[in-house]
Amino acid sequence: MRVTRHFVTVAGRRMHYTRAGEGPAVCLLHASPCSAKVLRLPQEVFAGRFTALAFDTPGFGLSDPWPHDRPEIEDFADNLALTLDALGVEGAATYGRHTGASIAVEFARRHAARCAMALTDGFPVFSAAVAEERQARYLQPIVPEWDGSHLVWLWFRYRDQHVFWPWHNQDQAFRADADAPDVAFNHRGVVELLEAGDGYRIGYAAAFRHRGLAVLPELTVPVCFGNRPGDSQFRTMAQYPADAWQQEFPRDPWEAAAAERAVLLRHPARGTVPAAPRPAPLAGRSTTDFVEVGGRQVLVRGMGDLRSAAPLVIVPHVPGSSAPYEGLVRAVGAHHPVLAFDLPGHGESEPRGDGAQGPDAWAEALWSVCDALGIGQVHLHGHNAGAAAAVEAACRRRGRVLSLALEGPIALDPAARAELAPRWAPDVTPAWDGSHLLRMWHHRRDMALWFPWWDRRDARARRAPLRIAPEALQEVVREVAKQPEGYAPAWTAAMAYPLPERLATLAQPLTLFATPEDLFAELLPKAASVRADAVVAECGGGDADRAAVILRALAR
Fold first, then answer.
1. Are 166 and 138 in contact (CB under 8 A)?
2. Strand partners, 357
3. Which of 7, 72, 337, 520 keeps 20 to 30 A from 248, CA to CA?
């Protein structure tokens, strides 16, 4: 079943959701601290008979956080109603797991006229004492540490919430009746925690404050309270009133989803679900959406009318995504149309069918995105590995590229490419102990300290300003960890690309620059040496300075 991804603008905030199937609407709401990704299995099963809409609730996944720090479950339910308004959906059934179950039931209570029924998978039931204890001990802050040790803590904290309930009571009496998650499941969960950041505690705490079973007398639409063996809430079934609609579902996830779909079919919502609307622009920030390219979705963020003038296309460094370039998009977008996108197999863009990485594949993706958006000529800005993609794109469509602004291009001579490319990237395949996250962290950190990063002699120490603050490194790791299988291939391809030779064949106006802390600033003279007409611009360290250099390049 094809699952597509979308954004919608709700009350001045961006909401992300996934969609699959056709038929009456059913809204899937995830547990904390996860995102809609954790609901992919039931979404695919429900999509056989429903339009299954799985939402990242505010502050989780790719949805914007709340503008205040104490939302209640009632706020999440009202936000769901506003989201359905924006989607043109009049009525829906709701399905939720844990925190999402609370939201599903609260939506049924507060918006009964729009709710066909609610179905829960583990509705949270806590005594006042337990709820208070959970808020004090369960929701520990996420504090980035200089050595990345918090990543391993996150790994085992997320794993152990499936081994013990609650995770911090690590005693046989609190052992969960369930298998430990596999490596892929655990990796996904840690990435979702990194997406939410320390703000994960805001939405999570709301579930512990909710009234739980006290809302049952106020429900006027059918609500089925489901539980599965092995779930932390399974033991609460005896606490429900005798007249509550309860159902025990199978332990096996596929069997459970099939049984849950049968329950939802008892009370389907009326009406049809319109096609997904485009997200409305938000003042002062990019509009983020997905573009279909070759049967796969690519995340694109843009500002301004992309057809009013040749836009600037920002090609981000990979491995990584366009998310760290949001400030640059805004700074340029205040003066000139601009777009940035996640290259296939990185960030939020789906990988190519053949999994190919490298400037050839990236250049092809760039032109496919432009074609899909109806864009003809462009200006290109590429950063680090993105500079290789920009150069290759210009070589392939010379008449469509008006200018090039390359930031920190990886300009190596053949001998350096042969030496560095095979060794540049460590193996970051997710491991059972989370050690791959430390390899990502220290690879990036050591690149800022030495060149090459594995030669840690003082003679090879980089003397440029350092950008190794834990908060900055965490942003990098969060983005590269989203698709770790592309990490080593992207680095290897970027380091092996003959950028000086390819750049020498181009005639477009060329601007070269690098911020003082750029990992490849020292290679700028090599790039400049192949084009006597290149403008080598000085640049400070902020997005405003980078945008000023780029805007001057556009005016050449």
1. yes
2. none
3. 72
CA pair distance 473, 476, nearest whole angstrom:
5
In one letter, which amino acid is 187? H
**Residue 209 three-state SS:** helix
The Cα 300–Cα 322 span in angstroms is 8
**Residues 6 or more apart from 490 whose CB is under 8 A from it?**
318, 319, 345, 346, 357, 358, 385, 425
Question: Over the range 459-491, which residues count as b (16 or more CB within 10 Å of their CB) and which as e?
Answer: eeebebeebeebebbbbbbbbbbbbbebbbbbb
Euclidean distance between CA atoms 119 and 124, whole angstroms: 13
Q: 78-83 contacts: CB < 8 A, separation 24 or more? A: 78/110, 78/111, 79/10, 79/11, 79/15, 80/27, 80/29, 80/55, 80/107, 80/111, 81/107, 81/110, 81/111, 81/114, 82/10, 82/11, 83/8, 83/10, 83/15, 83/17, 83/55
Residue tagged 């337990």 (tokens):
130
Q: What are the structure tokens assigned to 112, written together?
A: 């009964």
Question: Which of 490, 493, 465 is CA-nearest to residue 479?
Answer: 490
Contacts of residue 417, Cβ cutoff 8 Å, sequence gap at least 6: 495, 496, 497, 498
What backbone phi and psi angles, to 5 degrees, belong to 248? Answer: -90, 125
Flag residues of the chain having pLDDT under 50.
none
**Please, are residues 38 and 31 in contact by the beta-carbon 8 Å criterion?**
yes
Question: Using an 8 Å Cβ cutoff, are 503 and 391 in contact?
Answer: yes
Residues 79-91 as b/e (b if ≥16 CB within 10 A, e otherwise) read bbbebbeebebbb
Please report the pLDDT score of residue 541 as a whole number.
87
Note the pLDDT of residue 227. 98
Report the C-alpha gap between 370 and 311 in whole angstroms.
Answer: 10
Total length of the chain: 556
Cβ atoms 40, 3 nearer than 8 A: yes
Closest-CA residue to 328 (of 394, 391, 386, 368): 386
Q: What value, to the nearest 5°, has the Cα angle with vertex 388 and ends 382 and 394?
A: 80
Asked whether the beta carbons of 293 and 28 are under 8 A apart, the reply is no
Residues 6+ apart with CB under 8 A from 240: 213, 216, 225, 246
The number of CA neighbours under 13 Å toward the Cβ of 102 is 26
- Decide: 52 and 94 in contact? Cβ < 8 Å: no
User: Which residues make Cβ contacts (< 8 Å) with residue 344, sequence separation at least 6?
Assistant: 293, 296, 298, 350, 351, 352, 361, 362, 365
Supply the DSSP symbol for 301: E
16 exposed, middle or buried (CB, 10 Å; 0-12, 13-18, 19+)? buried
pLDDT at 127: 94
Angle at alpha carbon of residue 503, lines to 498 and 509, rounded to 5°: 160
Strand segments (E) across 447-503: none
Q: Are 512 and 524 in contact (CB under 8 A)?
A: yes
Going by their DSSP bridges, the two strands 312-315 and 338-341 should be labelled as: parallel
Strands 378-383 and 246-248: unpaired
Q: Is 160 exposed, middle or buried (0-12, 13-18, 19+ CB in 10 A)?
A: middle
Q: Can you read off the two tokens belonging to residue 452?
A: 């090459």
